[in-house]
Amino acid sequence: MPASSALKGLCAAALMVPLAAAAHANGKDPLPRVDPASVGLSPERLARIVPAFKSEIEKGRIPGVVVAIARRGKLAYFEAIGEIDPATKAPMTTDALFSLASMTKPMVSVGIMILHEEGKLFLNDPVGMYLPQLKDMKVVEVTTDANGKQTIGTRAAKRQPTIQDLLRHTSGLTYGGRGSTPVHKLWPAGSGSAVLQFTGPEFLETIGKLPLLHDPGTVWDYSLSTDVLGLVIEAITGKPLSAFLSERIWGPLGMTDTSFALADDKKGRYARAFPNDPLTGKPQTVLHAGSKPIKFECGGACAVATAGDYIRFSQMLLNGGVLDGKRVLGKKTVEYMTANHLGPQIANNVALTDPSREGYGFGLGFAVRMTSGVAGVSGTEGDYNWGGAYGTFFWNDPKEQLTVVFMSQGPGAIRTYYRKFVNTLVLQALVE
Question: What is the CATH number assigned to the segment(s) 3-94+268-292+302-427?
């Protein structure tokens, strides 16, 4: 079916269902709710969000979304718009579950920093101290003969990747799917494909034999680094990654719907993507969405959560590591994590993940804004964010005391459009 015909069909279907659900389906708000005006957000301007997304849904560009906004520690906006499942036409709900993809990474990064605070690791420790399979990694050396034939060799790395390198994506590891060089072709395409193919030990044995794309500490390159961090947590604690995160983050913060496995009684709340990419018409899938068993709990991409759960996590960070009297991290640790860790010796390629991130550096798990200008979206120096390949996104603005969580299941290139879309709609409503 041509993409244009598919879009027309999706438009018609979208018009047949309710487009907004104002109340949290389980009757419980994730944070204390207030009148938006009391925290400096215009109710009239916030009211633009639903019709703006309604228009996108009617065009068949996205099935449905959940938008959560908190300011000064209070929930000012929490809306579900569109459909939770294009196949059934069931309306979206605020307690819908989403595959987080790379929005898993900030939670695992916090897990690593918990161990750091307890003295169980230092950030400049070589990764091989904890994972011997990665003890002596080499760096690629590609030579080209007179006939243009390339040969991949290796050389000793100037130094081994550290825990800090993994946290800030300067490890030299890569995603095979993010490039076309001979080295990229050797690496797993992404976290999703890796967990369907390898157990944790198999994954480490495989990548430990692969050449690094760069010397550690020299180039920012988005990668499988956080998947390795999840295995570091397991090696140090002797626990599955989910058990540790449940004990130290999800449980204390009341994130009852966050996990690496979609329980049978929750599958009805799982948000699903269009079967075909609305931009290209090509088939698209969201991996391991409760139906495909994963062989290890990947720290880089495998978690499932609700917007309500995630805004509790993000509010904890905005509060300096504490929420409702439950302290997860120390204040200075959060400050350190959300500072830019890309010094002048490191090539900053953060904008290659999303052109609107021009002017951003990277902290320990998040992109960090270095100036109010430059970037392709509005914001404040010091705000930080990250998103997922399936359409999820969050950002915190410490100066404005603002946290925003956006959930959708739109895995194609359109996801970068909606990051800008929600950014604009939220910040235009900020009036004091």
Answer: 3.40.710.10
